[in-house]
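note to self: dont lose this again. the chain is below, predicted strucutre after it. 185 aa total, dont forget to put it in the shared folder this time
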Amino acid sequence: MLVPPIFPIFALRKLTEGTEVPSFYCMSQTTATHHLESLIRSIFEEGRCGEYYLVDLETSATGHITAYIDGDEGVSLDACTQISRILEAVLDQEPTLGGVYTLEVSSPGVTRPLRFPRQYLKHVGRNLRIEMANGEKLEGELKTTTHDTITLEIPSKEKKGKPELKEVPFAEIDEAYVTVSFGKK
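---
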């Protein structure tokens, strides 16, 4: 039986105002990761980050935390800085981190998949590359999006053929990426 590694965490714990005593926490890397993810997700769910939402979170055993955020109107550098400060204020108080971590807040960019239906709306008019749950691959221009589906305009394989409009339910999408092409129009 493989036992997950357990690591001790030394942190100061306040008993009463002005007094601190050392405390030890022992938890597996998996437990620590889940705790941290839950803590960060709750900050967004409570609305403390305004219109921005958490798309993905990566944590490492060395204390590197990357939060990928998005907003219906996109994400600016100022927004990333602002959210970084909000998260840091909470993480600095987190005893399992012991004050030792590196935080990076970023927009997902084009190298990361679209994860939520609300991300698709701002990409109407752009090209998407989609891998369906059944393994089928689709590529085309995102024409519309609803609560349950998107509509792609898929170019014809024939030179003068008409493009096909294909309605794709979100439930059948495994991964979708915005594709960027340079110099072609």
